Amino acid sequence: MSQQKPSAPKGMRDFGPEEMARRNYIFSTIRRVYEKFGFSPIETPAMEKLETLTGKYGEEGDRLIFKVLNSGDYLKEPKVSGLDLNQIDSKKLLRHISEKALRYDLTVPFARYVVQYHHQLPIPFKRYQIQPVWRADNPQKGRYREFYQCDADVVGSASLINEVELILILHEVLTELKIQGFKIYINNRKILAGIAEVAGISKQLVSFTVALDKLDKIGKENVLHEMQQNGFSEDSLKKISQVIDAAELKKNTLSFLKKFLSSSETGMKGMDEVSYVIKTAHELGVSNETLELDITLARGLDYYTGCIFEVKVPGSGFGSIAGGGRYDDLTGIFGMPGLPGVGISFGADRIYDLLLAHKLYPSFESTRYKYFFLNFGETESKESLRLIQILRGKNIRCGIYPDAVKIKKQMEYADKVKAEYVCTIGSNELLERKLGIKNMHTGEQHTISWDEFIQQITQEA
Predict the structure, then answer these.
(1) Residue 141, pLDDT score
(2) What is the distance between the alpha carbons of residues 282 and 222, in angstroms, rounded to a whole number?
(3) Prediction pTM value
């Protein structure tokens, strides 16, 4: 039997020490800004009940949920054994063999969490969550089956101040990460509902937004063709075409919308909301060039009801790196209607790739040890360990080679782990209670007594 070459599942990645240093840089930057704005951390399980997740993301989203098979031999269960597997519908079979699924995002599990623990939470509740999610998608550049999301949400408040603060968070995080030229695009689902109303397709709002959300990927003609395939009339397509043209011109968009939506109360409400958010964010330091109204932005998730956001870096070769929106009705599906919410999510994996591609990472302290002790034998290593414990007590990174092998091999290891200093306590140093120290950057060497070394370290600490 041939031995299989080990590899990670398609669309999932390993991260070594250097990659983790970069990822932690992203996570710590996002976490620091979230906490500055008063958000508290939570975590939810990797798996949720399948019924918790399905029906929340639209038909396309439901298809991409990773289902988890039940434990045991489920085909021997009485409720399943009588089924004809050649005739049964796969969806019906799924209910018998899978009760759980890997979470698709962090928002729906958060809604479940809020409903489950609402008596214990301060309302409004501001939470952030940095955890992996899974999607059974087709892996490609910038798109993975396992990836991290970094969410911040506010529930229990309908105030547009929350939208403004989330824009400020997006702006601050991306500025701290030194990403240049990023654009925060904003729209409102009420505007889209108003466009659908004026175009006479209110009953087809979901298929309208799903198709419109593909505009950047497939272009105007293909979007209109998809809508035509979905039964949109020529008059409806003509009006939608006018909206897309106005959006692509990026001039006098607000003026066009005010005229186009004048007969739609819902659409005008969306205009008022988005105008307030943009105006206030501009007053608080977000530039006109950074924050832009995009009336074709749809974000194809069914639960959004108000302002929606998406962040891209035009010309970078990457898709959206953050997004979010308001979802006033999400907790209602878990038995708690009327609890408004709004949130954003950073796509950490896309941000990771973008920073790497554009060489935006700072230089990290890549050394694993500041002081690395060579091993000359049992007696010498015990004295080395005594000094190492003193160093660790002062939060200094240090260690010892575990085996008394050839010094050349130990030095090669010290070089690989990028030790800053190599320390030696051989038989002579042991007798004289001294320590040999070599600077691995300059090659300089000197000897110092143990007491002087400890005193020097204490002063530095």
Answers:
(1) 73
(2) 35
(3) 0.85
Residue with tokens 């290891």: 413
- Is the domain of 339 the same as that of 376? no
**Domain tally for the chain?**
2
- In the structure encoding, which two tokens stand for residue 311, read together? 């962040």
Evaluate whether residue 400 is within a structural domain: yes
Pull the structure tokens for residue 229: 């395939």
Q: Across the chain, which distance is largest between two alpha carbons, in Å?
A: 96
Which residues contact residue 184 at a Cβ distance below 8 angstroms, ignoring those fewer than 6 apart? 167, 170, 171, 286, 290, 291, 292, 309, 310, 311
Q: Is residue 144 a contact partner of residue 10, using CB atoms and an 8 Å limit?
A: no
Of the residues 322, 357, 392, the one at which a domain ends? 357
Angstrom distance (rounded) from CA 388 to CA 191? 64
Instruction: Choose the final residue of a domain: 311, 334, 357.
Output: 357
| Average pLDDT by stretches of 10, the chain with 461 residues | 82 90 96 98 96 84 88 64 59 76 93 94 96 91 86 96 98 97 95 92 86 85 90 91 83 83 94 96 95 84 85 90 88 87 93 93 80 97 96 94 97 94 96 96 96 91 69
Give, in degrees to the nearest 5, the angle at Cα 293 between 207 and 193.
30
Residues 352 and 381 both lie in one domain? no
Between CA 98 and CA 95 the distance in angstroms is: 6
As a whole number of angstroms, the distance between CA 278 and CA 164 comes to 8
Q: Which domain holds residue 230?
A: 17-45+107-357
Domain of residue 416, CATH code: 3.40.50.800
Reading the block at residue 163, the tokens are 């939208």
Q: Which candidate, 288, 276, 214, 287, places its Cα nearest to that of 244? A: 214
pLDDT at 83: 57
Same domain, yes or no: 376 and 319: no
CB 192 within 8 A of CB 206: no
Q: Exposed, middle or buried by CB within 10 Å (0-12, 13-18, 19+), for 50?
A: middle
Q: Are both 317 and 379 inside the same structural domain?
A: no
Please check whether residue 89 lies inside any domain of the structure.
no
Four-residue CA torsion sign, 101, 301, 28, 315: positive
- Beta pairing class for 421-424 and 434-439: antiparallel
Calpha distance 310→170 (Å, rounded): 10
